[in-house]
Design brief:
The chain has 173 residues and is mostly helical. It has helices at residues 5-18, 69-76, 81-85, 95-101, 110-129, 138-143, 150-159.
Length: 173
């Protein structure tokens, strides 16, 4: 029995397509599990000096063992906990930038608004994404109309006389 060459090639293509990974570029939620980025490791517990003099528990209050976990997280990520301690105060060196970026008004719920719009967009795009024959990059497919071509933008700025840094060639060589 002789197997046709086309069947062998098709089987090889299907086998190779199965080896690819969608990773974070999939539009569908991977599951209903916990969000590991919301977990903040706490410092080890230590017994108080006196159990009789413990403060009254306050929901949402400070923790005796770990009084400022947000500042610890900022420091672990290389930031400055002093800026976090200032609350919402903007450092003096950034005031001009904040004033300039907010000159046309600031939408206070911009993150929530954009998240809702993006979720609705992904839901619309996901309707047709289910009918793909092969495992394709659904992220690039869904957002291709919103993607900028960096080389075309670079050329546009250069034609307008804006000094631009050097960029690698568009063909990748």
């Amino acid at each position: 029995m002789k197997i046709p060459f086309g069947v062998i090639v098709l089987a090889g293509i299907v086998a190779l397509a199965g080896c690819s990974k969608g990773g974070l570029r999939e539009l569908q939620k991977p599951g209903t599990g916990p969000d590991e980025f919301l977990v903040l490791p706490a410092k080890p517990l230590s017994p108080p000096e006196s159990y009789a003099q413990l403060p009254v528990p306050t929901p949402g209050g400070a923790n005796i063992t770990d009084p400022n976990p947000n500042a610890d997280a900022v420091a672990a990520l290389g930031g400055s906990p002093a800026l976090l301690a200032a609350g919402d105060a903007v450092p003096e060196r950034d005031l001009a930038l904040v004033r300039s970026s907010g000159r046309y008004g600031v939408q206070p719920d911009i993150r929530e608004s954009l998240a809702a719009e993006d979720a609705a967009f992904r839901k619309r795009e996901n309707r047709t994404a289910r009918f793909k024959l092969f495992n394709v990059d659904r992220y690039s497919d869904a957002y291709k109309r919103q993607t900028l071509d960096p080389h075309a933008v670079n050329q546009q700025f250069r034609r307008a006389g804006v000094p631009t840094p050097s960029a690698p060639p568009a063909d990748g060589s």
